[in-house]
Amino acid sequence: MARRVSLAGRLPAFPWDSLAPHRARAEQHPGGIVDLSVGTPVDPTPASVQQALADAADSHGYPTTIGTPALRQALVRFVQRRLGAPADLGVESVLPTIGSKELVAHLPFQLGIGAGGAIAFPHIAYPTYEMGALFVGAEPVPVDIERLADEGDAAFADAPGGTAAIDRIGLLWLNSPSNPTGAVLSVERMRSLVDWAREREIVVASDECYALLPWDVDAATSILDPRVHGGDLTGLLCVYSLSKQSNLAGYRAAFIAGDPALVAELTAIRKQAGMMLPGPVQAAMATALDDDAAVDAQREIYRRRRDVLRPALEAAGGRIPRSEAGLYLWTTFGESSEASVARLADLGILCAPGMFYGGAGDGFVRIALTASDERIDAAAERLTRP
């Protein structure tokens, strides 16, 4: 009997590695590369956050998994003030995490889902939802989430395993605003999805890290909003990151909020595993959560970049069907994703092909707003040059 089965051996190749030839091509442009392939922040971390990190540098003891009292209170204030969480939500409903990607990848394991189970997620989506299923040997089930909200079980007719997969699903991922499409789920659709999942005792985790970057909508609705859950958070989790809104990607500052019973389960597991956000980062995170002015200022920086890049892409023949919120322009030029990536690389612009986000993404490219103003202007000039 085999002593070990390689987990890495059953995973697909890391998709961004395949961009190397296109990166090399883009780097040959006389004006240099404009890298719009990854959503990593390029602007400074707020000064107040940097100072809080420095002030907490003498962090000689172990931090706690649940977070400092100051951080937990800041988390509660944030979800109530910015995400519409109920006024009676308490610190038992929040938990800091070491970035949100870690949580996305390992949530199936921490919820006890394994071989024989299934994880459902949007059919055009951030690839880590699928990785979380593969890590535990569960079946990944991509599904059209808007169709699921509107039609229920019928949405699984074209999904892996068909409607029979529903009985194996232990976790349903939502992502609104969407990475990569920018689509935002309405209150009505969110409520419909929660109702559908609750009837089947399926946990719903809503990845909402772009919620404070709305463009074509007034706001993105959180799963914590009582209009969605009717005053009952049972079975519901909001996954949130400060990486984008506060330029804290390097701090790995994120959290989960929702059903206190589920948060308690995750806390118990994460304590045993030693999953603790570093003490100085906890202090910095508490400061960032309370700094609405910095978040709002960063949103306006991205708005300006979007206002420059979107019309340039459209002038170059691109079509952007959804761009309601978030950091990406999900664009089609009426050709294969690979052809678009190659054509843009000839202009010195590197983007991500839609297939990175599932088979349904072919024909699109994801173009990030996360480059400096100067680089965004350079990309727009190249796209509109006769």
Key phrases:
three-stranded antiparallel sheet; alpha/beta; 12 strands; 386 residues
Describe this structure as you would to a colleague.
The chain has helices at 20-27, 47-55, 69-82, 100-110, 128-135, 145-151, 187-199, 226-229, 260-273, 279-290, 292-315, 337-346, 373-384; strands at 34-35, 94-98, 118-122, 139-143, 169-175, 203-207, 236-241, 253-258, 328-331, 349-350, 352-353, 365-368. The protein is α/β, with parallel strands linked by helices. The chain has a 7-stranded mixed sheet, sandwiched between helices. Strands 9-12-11 form a 3-stranded antiparallel sheet, covered by helices on one side. A two-stranded parallel sheet has the order 1-10. Helix 7 (187-199) links the parallel strand 5 (169-175) and strand 6. The termini are far apart.
User: What helical percentage do the residues reach?
Assistant: 25-40%
Strand share of the residues? 5-15%
Q: What summary fits the major beta sheet?
A: 7 strands, mixed
Distance between the termini: 65 Å
Contiguous runs where pLDDT drops below 50 for at least 5 residues: none
Would you tell me the overall average pLDDT? 95
Topology (elements, then pairings):
Layout: H1 20-27, E1 34-35, H2 47-55, H3 69-82, E2 94-98, H4 100-110, E3 118-122, H5 128-135, E4 139-143, H6 145-151, E5 169-175, H7 187-199, E6 203-207, H8 226-229, E7 236-241, E8 253-258, H9 260-273, H10 279-290, H11 292-315, E9 328-331, H12 337-346, E10 349-350, E11 352-353, E12 365-368, H13 373-384
Parallel strand pairs: 1-10, 3-4, 3-5, 5-6, 6-7
Antiparallel strand pairs: 2-8, 7-8, 9-12, 11-12
